[in-house]
Design brief:
249 residues, mainly alpha, globular
Length: 249
C-alpha cells in the first residue's frame, strides 16, 4: 500500500514539473512591457550626403574621368587600369546623395559609368569603346555640375579671379618675381572651385579661359620671368573673365 501511494505521488510530481516547463514563456522585453513591438532587424539605409559632399564628389569624379580621357588618348594602358577603380570609388562616396535629388542624372551616370569601368579592364584596350563611354560619362557629370554650381557662384569666382589678375599684372610689370610666383597658383585655385559649372554652359568660353590661364600659371613659376609673355597671357585671361561675367546666366 505504501509503495502504491509513493508511486502515485511521484507520478503527480513529474506531471506537475512537465506542465510547468511547457507553460513557461521567455521574460518580456522592456519594449514589449511598454506596449511596443520589438524592432525588426534594420536594413542598410542610404547614408546622408550633404550638398557640399555631392559637389566635392562630382568634381573628383570629373577630374578622374578627364585624366582617363588623357590616358586613353595616349594609349597608356597601365594608367587606364589604375583609373578605372578610382571612378567607382569616387562615385561610391556621394551617389546616395544624388539619387533622391537628381534621379534622372543618377540613372544616366550609372548607365555610363558601368561600361566605362568595364572597358578599362579590357586588354588590349578598345580605345573607341572606352572613349565613347567615358565621353558620355563626362557629359552627364557636366550636366550635374551645372545644377550644383549656379551662375552666381561662377560670377563671384570670375570677379575674384579678375582681382587676382589685376594684382598679378602690377607685379609682372614691377618684375616682382616672388610675388608673381605667389599669385599665379591662386588663379588656378579659384578657377577650380567653379570651372565645372562653366564648361556645360559655354565650352567655347571655357576653352578660351583655359588657353590663357594654364600657360600663365606655368609661366609665373619660371625664373627669370618672361614679362612680355606673361602680360599678354594675363590680358587674354582678363578679357575671357570679363566676357564670362557678361554672358554666363
Amino acid at each position: 500500500m505504501n509503495k502504491h501511494v509513493s508511486l502515485i505521488t511521484a507520478t503527480l510530481l513529474l506531471s506537475a514539473s512537465l506542465l510547468s516547463a511547457c507553460g513557461s514563456a521567455p521574460a518580456p522585453s522592456a519594449q514589449a512591457t511598454n506596449g511596443q513591438a520589438s524592432p525588426a532587424p534594420s536594413k542598410t539605409e542610404n547614408k546622408a550626403v550633404s550638398d557640399a559632399a555631392i559637389k566635392e564628389g562630382t568634381a573628383k569624379l570629373l577630374k578622374t574621368a578627364k585624366q582617363l580621357r588623357k590616358a586613353v588618348t595616349a594609349g597608356d594602358e597601365a594608367k587606364v587600369k589604375e583609373l578605372g577603380p578610382k571612378l567607382e570609388d569616387a562615385w561610391g562616396s556621394f551617389e546616395d546623395g544624388v539619387k533622391p535629388k537628381y534621379p534622372d542624372l543618377y540613372e544616366q551616370i550609372e548607365k555610363n559609368l558601368d561600361p566605362t569601368i568595364a572597358a578599362t579592364k579590357a586588354s588590349p584596350l578598345n580605345k573607341d569603346v572606352l572613349s565613347k563611354a567615358n565621353d558620355q560619362l563626362l557629359q552627364t557629370l557636366y550636366d550635374l555640375s551645372q545644377k550644383l554650381i549656379p551662375a552666381d557662384q561662377i560670377k563671384a569666382g570670375a570677379t575674384q579671379m579678375l582681382g587676382i589678375a589685376g594684382d598679378l599684372k602690377k607685379e609682372i610689370e614691377a618684375g616682382n618675381e616672388a610675388k608673381v610666383k605667389e599669385l599665379g597658383p591662386t588663379l588656378e585655385d579659384v578657377w577650380s572651385t567653379f570651372e565645372d559649372g562653366v564648361r556645360p554652359r559655354s565650352a567655347e568660353l571655357y576653352e578660351k579661359l583655359e588657353k590663357s590661364l594654364n600657360p600663365e600659371v606655368a609661366g609665373s613659376q619660371k625664373s627669370p620671368l618672361d614679362k612680355q609673355a606673361l602680360s599678354q597671357l594675363n590680358d587674354g585671361l582678363t578679357q575671357a573673365l570679363n566676357e564670362m561675367l557678361q554672358t554666363i546666366k
